[in-house]
Amino acid sequence: ETGVTQSPTHLIKTRGQQVTLRCSSQSGHNTVSWYQQALGQGPQFIFQYYREEENGRGNFPPRFSGLQFPNYSSELNVNALELDDSALYLCASSLDPSVIGTLHFGNGTRLTVT
Amino acid sequence: AQSVTQLDSQVPVFEEAPVELRCNYSSSVSVYLFWYVQYPNQGLQLLLKYLSGSTLVKGINGFEAEFNKSQTSFHLRKPSVHISDTAEYFCAVRGGADGLTFGKGTHLIIQP
Questions:
Q1: How large is the average pLDDT for residues A29-43?
Q2: What is d(CA A22, CA A73) in angstroms, rounded to the nearest whole number?
Q3: Residues B58-70, mean pLDDT to the nearest whole number
Q4: Cβ(A7)–Cβ(A110) under 8 Å?
Q5: I want to staple A56 with a disulfide (CB 3.0 to 4.6 A). Which of A22, A37, A48, A105 is the partner?
Q6: Chain B residues whose beta carbon lies within 8 Å of the beta carbon of residue A44
Q7: Which residues of B touch A48 (CB under 8 A)?
């Protein structure tokens, strides 16, 4: 079975720009969540999508937005980039949105904002 | 709201020695507890999880963890470590629809 894949692997952007990160779910998974991992920190929950609807959100401003498509792939969009947005962005998929579901993580996209 | 404290940012241990990585949590609701491992330049991989039932949970790669409700702890243990266990280990808690809350991680360093 194909695991969670993320693209691109690395990205460099300038402050104020916009960025789109992409994620393909593991086969059979209908739930996708996104996490931000700053250097030396644990991942922080951004939001979760289930059947194309956002159904959970962490403490991130509205300039962080997302989409989930009918094939359950997903995008994370960040507008008006700030230097502090530099981080590893991790996508995770699961069979369903329940709290006990196992999350399967991709290898992440390393975003650098200069 | 939930929070997780990993008491050690770095744990050095000799190869084939036992190791314990400490994790304490706080939560106002019933919790589900997880340990994930992150190898360099990779995503996170689930080691084990506690949902209910037996407080001793066995996971992959010879790891196990014990849930202690009175001490609000979920420490990870392995009786004998290998060089390949060198990685970052994250304890996490989930109590609702707000995703996983992770600790800051513990870097396990295996010395030959």
A1: 94
A2: 8
A3: 95
A4: no
A5: A48
A6: 102
A7: 97, 99
